[in-house]
Design brief:
This protein is mostly beta strands. The chain has a single domain, classed as Roll (Pnp Oxidase, Chain A), CATH 2.30.110.10. It is built from two helices and nine strands, in the order ββαβαββββββ. The strands form three sheets. The protein has a five-stranded antiparallel beta sheet with strand order 1-2-7-6-3. The chain has a two-stranded antiparallel ribbon with strand order 4-5. The longest helix is centred in the middle third of the chain and has 8 residues. The protein is globular, with a radius of gyration of 14 Å. The model has no long low-confidence stretch (mean pLDDT 89).
Length: 126
């Protein structure tokens, strides 16, 4: 599942938020589960991003590498970063739900991030 927004909320305690469309296939499950993961993709993972944002939610994990985090959530192989969260709040906001999670563990790797900007994938220039 892809989200329409992700950002840091607080450093103490460490909180992040994601915004999920009510029509997203994983919306109801996300509101029932205690934990969720944010997988931040690397630049070379554009096909994976397209796959998870597509309509066929039943085959998203078929044939791709992933493991389970400390909280049991799915962590995609080769992602730039993994953030495991415990859901602490949810707020309706128009056609989306804002889900706030307390970061329980996080890992990051050195690589270029996958960016989505103005309706397309972009590269970070230096």
């Amino acid at each position: 599942m892809t989200v329409s927004a992700f950002c840091s909320v607080s450093l103490v305690p460490p909180l992040v938020l994601i915004c999920v469309d009510h029509a997203a296939s994983m919306h109801a499950m996300l509101l029932e589960t205690k934990h969720f993961a944010v997988n931040i993709l690397a630049a070379h993972q554009e096909p994976l991003s397209r796959r998870f944002s597509g309509p066929d939610e039943h085959k998203r994990f078929d044939g791709i590498g992933y493991g389970r985090g400390l909280t049991g959530v799915a962590l995609l192989d080769d992602a730039l970063a993994h953030i495991e969260c415990r859901r602490v709040a949810q707020h309706p906001a128009g056609d989306h739900t804002i889900v706030v999670g307390r970061v329980e563990t996080a890992t990051a790797h050195s690589d270029r991030p996958l960016l989505y900007y103005r309706g397309g994938y972009a590269q970070l220039e230096r």
